[in-house]
């Protein structure tokens, strides 16, 4: 066979080489996609961390703004309550009254209740003409007023409302107006402060939205690169399976070729063996000789062999046997 003759598995080897070359290119492509995905993930994580810090800062600012707005509501409630007291005092000064207890401010209600309690207690301590029945009625009314006073005290304390003197309405009105103006100004200052915080927060909100959109874009790029890498890896697995099949075919062809050569060499070796190298042939020849009863070696005839044997026997007879001793060499 010529040395340049094409082997049977040359086509398989060519296909295998082409597939391995393609697989190396695909591996580089997959690694490139994975690297792009890693860079996108790192950028996304950095953006998300930046966005997290920004959101925490925005939350702190908004919490502070909410606290200030709540304080403004407290000042507004105090102002409104004081203004109600002023209107009631003005109405009482002008001789107007109302029987509706709930329409009065809590300060006026508390003031009237405390005044009534003081009056009843003073009557019970100083008026000796009270009968037992009248005293029991006063005690019952006193208990009711004390209960009402205890209900009003927490509400008055909550708003820190100034106590008024019903005996000096003009002075109380002046004090209440000043206090109402102070609460109104405090409410305005709180709203201004809250508005300033909001002006600082607005650009932070815009930056937050930008970072969120950028994080989403980078995450989408990460997913795209990962999907591309996974697709290439999937195709690589298919090519690897095909390469393994071709390798198995080449291995099987090599083994078959080696087996044929080995069998051929063995057959040639067996054909060149002589009887002394082939035990089976030697045993066969021995069996044939034993069956034939005669053996001829080197072209000697049977009569020559018998003549040689007869001469050897005669020679032995003529020698005779020697007796006596011999002296060895000194």
Short synopsis of the structure:
This protein has 330 residues and is an all-alpha fold. Helices cover 81% and strands 0% of the residues. It has 6 helices and no strands.
Describe this structure in words.
It is a single chain. Helix 1 packs antiparallel against helix 4 and helix 2 (106-126) runs antiparallel to helix 3 (132-159). With 330 residues, the chain is mainly α. The chain is built from six helices and no strands. The relative contact order is 0.11. It has a domain at 10-237. The longest helix has 103 residues, at 169-271. The chain is rod-shaped.
Strand content: under 5%
Give the number of helices: 6
Radius of gyration: 63 Å
Classify the secondary structure makeup into a structural class. Answer: mainly alpha
Choose one word for the global shape: rod-shaped
Instruction: List low-pLDDT spans.
Output: 1-5, 97-102, 320-330
> How helix-rich are the residues, as a percent range?
over 70%
The largest pleated sheet is described as:
none
SSE order: HHHHHH
Mean of pLDDT: 76
Oligomer: single chain
The tally of strands reads 0
Termini Cα gap:
78 Å
What secondary-structure arrangement, pairings included, does this model have?
Layout: H1 10-93, H2 106-126, H3 132-159, H4 169-271, H5 279-292, H6 302-319
Helix pairs in contact: 1-4, 2-3
């Amino acid at each position: 066979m010529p040395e340049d003759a094409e082997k049977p598995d040359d086509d398989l080897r060519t296909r295998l080489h082409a597939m391995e070359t393609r697989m190396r290119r695909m591996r580089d492509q997959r690694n490139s996609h994975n690297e792009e995905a890693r860079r996108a993930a790192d950028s996304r994580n950095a953006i998300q961390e930046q966005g997290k810090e920004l959101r925490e800062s925005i939350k702190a600012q908004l919490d502070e703004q909410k606290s200030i707005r709540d304080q403004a509501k407290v000042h507004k409630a105090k102002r409104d309550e004081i203004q109600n007291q002023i209107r009631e005092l003005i109405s009482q000064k002008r001789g107007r009254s109302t029987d509706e207890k709930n329409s009065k401010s809590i300060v006026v209600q508390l003031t009237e209740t405390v005044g009534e309690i003081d009056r009843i207690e003073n009557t019970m301590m100083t008026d000796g003409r009270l009968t037992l029945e009248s005293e029991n009625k006063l005690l019952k009314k006193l208990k009711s007023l004390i209960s009402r006073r205890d209900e009003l005290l927490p509400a008055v304390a909550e708003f820190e409302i100034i106590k008024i003197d019903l005996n000096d309405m003009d002075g109380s009105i002046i004090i209440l107006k000043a206090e109402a103006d102070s609460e109104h100004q405090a409410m305005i200052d709180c709203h201004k402060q809250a508005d300033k915080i909001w002006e600082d927060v607005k650009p932070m909100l815009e930056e937050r939205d930008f970072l969120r959109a950028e994080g989403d874009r980078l995450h989408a790029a990460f997913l795209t690169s990962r999907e591309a890498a996974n697709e290439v890896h999937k195709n690589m697995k298919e090519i690897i399976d095909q390469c393994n099949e071709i390798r198995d075919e080449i291995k099987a062809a090599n083994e078959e070729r080696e087996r044929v050569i080995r069998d051929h060499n063995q057959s040639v070796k067996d054909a060149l063996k002589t009887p002394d190298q082939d035990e089976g042939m030697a045993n066969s020849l021995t069996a044939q000789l034993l069956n034939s009863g005669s053996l001829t070696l080197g072209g000697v005839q049977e009569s020559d062999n018998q003549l040689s044997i007869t001469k050897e026997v005669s020679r032995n007879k003529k020698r005779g046997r020697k007796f006596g001793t011999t002296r060895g060499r000194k």
